[in-house]
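FAQ: What does a ligand-bound record look like?

Like this one, built around flavin mononucleotide:
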Amino acid sequence: MNVFIGITGASGAPYARRLVQALLAGGHTVGACFSSAAPQVTGQELYGDLRMPREEVIERWLADTGLPAEQLYDSHDFGSPYASGSALWQAAVIVPCSMDTLATIASGAGNNLLHRAASVALKEDRKLVLVPRETPLSTIHLENLLRVRRAGAHVLPAMPAFYQLPETIDDMIDFVVAKVLNLLGLDQTLIGQWDAGMARAELPVAD
Ligand SMILES: Cc1cc2nc3c(=O)[nH]c(=O)nc-3n(C[C@H](O)[C@H](O)[C@H](O)COP(=O)(O)O)c2cc1C
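The answer part, i.e. the structure of the complex:
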């Protein structure tokens, strides 16, 4: 599968990194793009430095993910295949998806490659997965989420669950990434299949 990964300046950079790693490990083609705000948040969340220069964030991120540099597109590269419905890519994931990018996609407007790829996915009936992150949500956010869902996008909020007893932050990241892979119709081994019977046996019984 050929998948576009758009990374915005919402909190959740670890999800994007893990998803790219998982897709590449599965032999898929990935084209990625940072919004102009994303490197700052990625610098903070992955490398602990909100002020890390953009070039350094990107260099470290490419090394971490293993994505070839030519597969990372500038946010204004409208010549990229992901800006066109004529190019045969199959899916777009915006992870994490900020409320700004959500609003732009919901409005049908756009001024960067992330917006364009999302718009192409919707018009071409290709899979579009949005992983929004904000809390609390305003009425405007909620209306925008409903609007994109009605237009055909899948809305997969960055909401890790606890029923699988995560022990590390990586477990919680994997939970969300596994959900994205499931929605893309891809096999995943990041988390086990949920088996309520098994869980009952393993969970401590309350007195
Ligand atoms: C550390 C940090 C965390 C942020 N977290 C969020 C968030 O969770 N959700 C959100 O919508 N915006 C968040 N923002 C604000 C966005 O980065 C900002 O609205 C930006 O304009 C989004 O633009 P983009 O959608 O083009 O990336 C955060 C900003 C910073 C610096």
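Follow-up question: can I read anything off the structure? Yes, for example: Residues 169-183 form the longest helix (15 residues).
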